[in-house]
Amino acid sequence: MPSSLIPPLAGKAALVTGGSRGIGAAIVRRLAQDGAAVAFTYSASSERAAALVAEIETEGGKARAIRADSADVDAVKAAVAEAAKAFSRIDILVNNAGILIRNLVDDYDPADFDRMFAVNVRAPFIAIQAALPHMRAGGRIITTGSVTADRSGFPGASVYSMTKGAVASMTRGLTRDLGPRGITVNAVQPGPTATDMNSSEEGRALTRPLMAIGRVGEDHEVASLVAYLAGPESSFITGSALTIDGGYLA
Ligand SMILES: NC(=O)c1ccc[n+]([C@@H]2O[C@H](COP(=O)([O-])OP(=O)(O)OC[C@H]3O[C@@H](n4cnc5c(N)ncnc54)[C@H](OP(=O)(O)O)[C@@H]3O)[C@@H](O)[C@H]2O)c1
User: Fold this and answer.
1) How far apart are CA 125 and CA 122, in angstroms?
2) Which residues in the chain land under pLDDT 70?
3) What is the per-residue pLDDT for 203?
4) How far apart are CA 95 and CA 40, in angstroms?
5) Residue 169: Cβ-neighbour burial (10 angstroms; 0-12, 13-18, 19+)
6) Which residue range or ranges hold the Ketoreductase domain (predicted)?
7) Residue 184: is it exposed, middle or buried by C-beta count within 10 angstroms (0-12/13-18/19+)?
């Protein structure tokens, strides 16, 4: 095949956490279309996960679904080990699984606070730790943050915003650890994007006037940015939290 026709991620192995639905499923699809073998985790949506694997395999790609609750440290480690065993290594790790538990500060349950940090912050860190022994120079680590790291637009999102701020600062910190090993570490920070997490018409009506382009984002638009960061063209980008928000922060 002429080199210009070889998909950019041909021969690469990827693990995407939270890949059964929404932005994660779009990332899984896109990395597979770009030629990577893709393992992904999910916590509950077994049928959707199986359907996504079947869809990718029907199109000639390689995919594997792994049930692993990101709140469970051992499950995260086991998922990384399973992906590394299946594909012999991990070239691309996308920490995408995330949850949003909203509440005003007065009533915020400390158990919800801990769960938010376990899934949105601890799990990416543990997955990175577990993936590093399987990752060589040229490796790519990408974590899904949020524009809420930079702007809390609405009440009830203080803890979610904290977790996404932590993703951005973790990304910068890890860049210093892993740059010398030739591994890039970046975050993507989506603005309001049409997924189950952001599905209420009331919520979309509130955000629409704040979007410079007059609409919320689509999952595949975020996946395009992740694919770029996962690919060979992004070799000089590390330590960045790249915003993709239709002008929400502008
Ligand atoms: N949508 C937005 O407007 C928006 C904006 C900024 C940032 N983000 C971020 O983008 C990422 C994806 O969000 P989304 O909108 O695509 O959310 P979503 O539609 O709710 O999908 C979440 C995905 O994460 C998985 N997941 C949730 N909890 C998990 C857990 N404990 N363990 C393992 N997997 C788990 C879900 O798996 P199951 O199907 O099994 O539940 C699903 O695949 C999140 O990090 C979110 O914070 C979203």
Assistant:
1) 5
2) 1-3
3) 81
4) 10
5) middle
6) 12-191
7) buried
- Per DSSP (E only), the strands in 63-221 are 63-67, 92-95, 140-144, 184-190
CA 167 to chain CA centroid, nearest Å? 11
C-alpha to C-alpha distance for 91 and 102, rounded to whole angstroms: 34
Catalytic residues: 160
| Domain boundaries defined on the chain | 3-244
Q: Find the 87 Cα to ligand 1 centroid distance in Å.
A: 24
pLDDT digits (tens, 9 = 90+) for 165-215: 999 999 999 999 999 999 999 999 999 999 999 888 888 888 889 999 999
Residue 5: its pLDDT value, please? 87
The residue contributing the CA closest to ligand 1 atom 20 is 197
Closest ligand 1 atom to the C-alpha of 100? 47
| pTM of the predicted model as reported, rounded to 2 decimal places | 0.98
Domain covering 3-244, topology: Rossmann fold (3.40.50)
Per-residue confidence (pLDDT) for residue 1, from 0 to 100: 60
